[in-house]
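Can anyone check this?
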Amino acid sequence: MRAAECGSLRQVPRTHFHCRLETPDTRPDIMSASWLDLSEVRDLDISFLKANRSLRTLYVSHADSLSRIDVLQQVSELRLMHIPKAHSLEALAALKNLRVLVIATLPSWDA
């Protein structure tokens, strides 16, 4: 990737959504975001994002599992941070458009 291309990627508008403090009703903009950062997902069913046809990049942090993520067929880039209770990545096999997958844990969990 050329430097110019890499720089343009950083300019994609990112939408942050705190799952414990906000709801889709209070933040209708998440239903049209192409780059969505979900924090404090915990046990929330995120399948409601299936209706967001613009969603391409999804960053999920602090989720208890990957259940129902398989319905997000439009996602091409998935970034998972700190999903300690997820014991299988099998649900990701259903994401036919997925091209980039990043899985990370918090530094304290890596030690």
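Reply from J.R.: I decoded it. Confidence is low (pLDDT under 50) at residues 1-10.
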